[in-house]
């Protein structure tokens, strides 16, 4: 067997065997398959697809490409969460401390930005000192000590996904069902939880642009979960406009801190409550979804969730004075308003475009090795369905270059679609696949 034959087979729309998939995953992980060969195969998969058997095989090969974490010391209902990605998606930062505040262990490996979407790890690194790069023993000890640890893909867990994820980001191969399903489920299988809640985002700012594809992705991941003995629930959430009000690393962390202190945007709250109540249920801490939502609201109000976030940040070396005083976060040099020039109602804010603009300001990567600018991004003052008048501020651009700022302002003016007619407020939760 050799990699050229495997690439040619997928290029010619043929099915790959389990052995061929394993050969590729192992070879890419140990460096025998080069980046350009992997890029060619991934592009062929992107264009010609994979059937369910191939998708399951690549998932299991990727999960087996490194160590498998054993979290059984935390009980038999260890629950994990993952999102298929979005724009302004700061849900993990808010939700996971809430879950840990109930005494439910949270051991979560998160990703960096991918394509036009942001990543929890890039966001967490906005907090000076926070270490996303810890050894397995330390990761487990963190969970033992404070009930929660959020880390990057630094452990030797699903290393094939780490490589493929970074590669896909730079060859425009992000929005593809077999590649997303295998990426997410390989990490979740290797990371040791036995119950999984997935936030499957849907709309312009998601990899799945419509409900039909989001359901297909959900069913694929649920099926892989079943084969791996992991109960999986998928919550389909709206990502047609950015979630919450901020897009960009520091800006999203600030929004998350405010949310944990009790000031949470309604769309973010709906997603946090839905995902959280299923996590509580799967963890065996409450059967009733509506009651679980109430419990979550209580733990925000009584400060337990925010205190848990503080414990998490402190335990991983982060400077908690930034949480107490969010004005300490580095600010961009230019903060420029985008002014509305029509009366009416906001009909659409294409989330993908907002993600791309934020990336162009410096919040995302073009090459794998690029550094990101933590301080740049966009803060939305008006969201879909809001009434607007001429002269209102639609959003603010946070930039470190005047030229990039004015380009972003011009683009955002076009992205905000204003209708004369009233617009209904979009529903944050689209469907649940369980
Ligand atoms: N999140 C992942 O971990 N992988 C993807 O491919 C997309 C979102």
Adjacency order of strands in the biggest sheet: 1-4-5-13
Number of helices: 17
C-alpha Rg (nearest Å):
21 Å
Bound molecules: uracil
Q: Which structural class should the secondary elements be placed in? A: alpha/beta
Shape: globular
H/E series: HHHHEHEHHEHHEHEEHHHHHEEHEEEHEE
Largest sheet: 4 strands, mixed
Q: Note the gap between the termini.
A: 40 Å
Estimate the helix proportion, in percent: 40-55%
Low-confidence stretches: none
Using DSSP, what is the number of strands?
A: 13
What's the average pLDDT? 95
Beta-strand percentage range: 5-15%
Describe the secondary-structure layout.
Elements: H1 3-11, H2 18-30, H3 35-48, H4 52-63, E1 79-83, H5 91-100, E2 106-109, H6 120-124, H7 136-146, E3 148-151, H8 159-170, H9 177-190, E4 195-202, H10 211-227, E5 231-238, E6 246-247, H11 249-260, H12 266-282, H13 289-301, H14 304-315, H15 321-324, E7 334-339, E8 344-349, H16 351-363, E9 377-380, E10 387-388, E11 393-399, H17 402-415, E12 416-419, E13 429-433
Parallel strand pairs: 1-4, 2-3, 4-5
Antiparallel strand pairs: 5-13, 6-9, 7-11, 8-10, 8-12, 9-11
Helix pairs in contact: 1-3, 2-4, 4-9, 5-11, 5-12, 5-14, 9-10, 12-13, 16-17
Bound molecules: uracil.
Question: How would you characterize this protein structure?
Answer:
The strands form 4 sheets. The chain has a 4-stranded mixed beta sheet, with helices on both faces. The chain has helices at 3-11, 18-30, 35-48, 52-63, 91-100, 120-124, 136-146, 159-170, 177-190, 211-227, 249-260, 266-282, 289-301, 304-315, 321-324, 351-363, 402-415; strands at 79-83, 106-109, 148-151, 195-202, 231-238, 246-247, 334-339, 344-349, 377-380, 387-388, 393-399, 416-419, 429-433. Helix 10 links the parallel strand 4 (195-202) and strand 5. Helix content is 47%, strand content 15%. The mean pLDDT is 95. The protein is an alpha/beta fold. The two termini are 40 Å apart. The structure holds uracil. Uracil (URA) binds at residues 84-85, 111, 114, 165, 179-180, 183-184.
């Amino acid at each position: 067997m050799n990699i050229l034959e495997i690439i040619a087979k997928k290029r010619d729309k043929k099915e790959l065997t389990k052995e061929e998939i394993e050969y590729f995953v192992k070879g890419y992980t140990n460096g025998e398959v080069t980046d350009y060969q992997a890029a060619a195969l991934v592009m062929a998969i992107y264009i010609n697809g994979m059937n369910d058997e191939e998708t399951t095989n690549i998932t299991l090969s990727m999960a087996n490409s490194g160590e498998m974490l054993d979290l059984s010391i935390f009980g038999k209902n260890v629950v994990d969460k993952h999102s298929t990605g979005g724009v302004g998606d700061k849900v993990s930062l808010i939700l996971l401390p809430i879950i840990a505040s109930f005494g439910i262990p949270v051991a979560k490996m998160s990703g960096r930005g991918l394509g036009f979407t942001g990543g929890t790890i890039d966001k967490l690194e906005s907090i000076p000192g926070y270490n996303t790069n810890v050894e397995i023993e330390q990761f487990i000890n963190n969970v033992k000590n404070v009930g929660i640890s959020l880390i990057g893909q630094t452990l030797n867990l699903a290393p094939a996904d780490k490589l493929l994820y970074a590669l896909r980001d730079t060859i425009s191969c992000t929005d593809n069902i077999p590649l997303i399903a295998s990426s997410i489920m390989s990490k979740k299988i290797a990371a040791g939880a036995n119950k999984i809640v997935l936030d499957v985002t849907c709309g312009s700012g998601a990899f799945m642009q419509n409900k039909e594809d989001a359901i297909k992705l959900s069913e694929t991941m649920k099926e892989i979960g079943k084969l791996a003995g992991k109960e999986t629930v998928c919550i389909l959430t709206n990502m047609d406009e950015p979630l919450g009000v901020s897009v960009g690393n520091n800006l999203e962390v600030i929004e998350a801190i405010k949310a944990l202190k009790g000031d949470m945007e309604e769309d973010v709250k709906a997603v946090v409550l839905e995902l959280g109540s299923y996590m509580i249920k799967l963890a065996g801490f409450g059967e009733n979804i509506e009651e679980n939502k109430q419990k979550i609201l209580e733990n925000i109000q009584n400060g337990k969730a925010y205190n848990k976030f503080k414990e998490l940040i402190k335990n991983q070396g982060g400077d908690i004075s930034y949480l107490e005083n969010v004005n300490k976060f580095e600010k961009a040099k230019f903060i420029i308003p985008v002014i509305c020039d029509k009366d009416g109602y906001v009909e659409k804010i294409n989330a993908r475009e907002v993600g791309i603009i934020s990336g162009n300001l410096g919040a995302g990567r073009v090459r794998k090795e690029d550094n990101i600018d933590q301080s740049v991004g966009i803060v939305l003052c008006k969201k879909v369905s809001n009434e607007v008048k001429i002269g209102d501020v639609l959003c603010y651009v946070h930039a470190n270059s005047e030229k990039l700022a004015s380009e972003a302002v011009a683009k955002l003016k076009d992205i905000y679609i204003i209708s004369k007619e009233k617009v209904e407020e979009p529903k944050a939760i689209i469907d649940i696949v369980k």
